[in-house]
Amino acid sequence: MKTLIFITAIFSSALASQAASTLVNWSMLPSDGRRLNGFNLIPLSAGTPAAGDGTLLELGYYSMASTSNPFAGSWTVLASSTMGDNGIEVAGRFSTSSILGDAAMPGLTTSTPLSIRYYDSVSIATSIYFNAVSNTSGAWNYVIPIDPSPTIIMAIDKDVSIVFQGSVEGAFRTVIPIPEPSHMLLVMVSGFVALLRRRRE
Q1: Distance (Å, whole) CA 60 – CA 149
Q2: Quick one: how many helices (H) and strands (E) in the chain?
């Protein structure tokens, strides 16, 4: 079983040890039977009963994100998990919690919407596609750590304010190729600059 025993005690202890923190509960709700799927519409793997071998999940934000465009800018990871851990051993579903401390992150303010990225393999290196999901209502906006700790609920469902980076047709699926287009452009530009330098030498 992947169920984390004493999870309540662990989080209570962790929260108590930090003067200021923010608790984020992020999950894929099962209420309407939906699951997160791969490009082929097969639910993302929850792995084996061992922890850490399901498909990769990341909690984070985009550097220029706003409620009108939660996916603008470059991606920063705040926490990660894998599908199937924390007692939810069902393909395409997850439920986990992360504690964010008071360390400053560039571009992360109270007006920044958080996002969840999900991949189609256990790591980025072995994934072919990913997608990201956020919320345009402000419900997923970051809350600066205070004491007592605020809680952000990030539940993926079919609410109209839930938006996916990979188009409407790509909702609940991994549809964005890895490496992502912005990363590929950066690699191409770097290669072009390196080629020019070699020619000058």
Answers
A1: 18
A2: 2, 9
Does residue 2 lie in a domain region? no
Assigned domain for 86 exists = yes
In a domain, 1, yes or no: no
Q: Give the domain range for residue 30.
A: 7-200
The secondary structure element, H or E, covering residue 196 is helix 181-200
C-alpha Rg value of the chain to the nearest Å: 18
pLDDT tens for 100-144 read: 988 778 889 999 999 999 999 999 999 999 999 999 999 999 998
Specify the number of domains making up the chain: 1
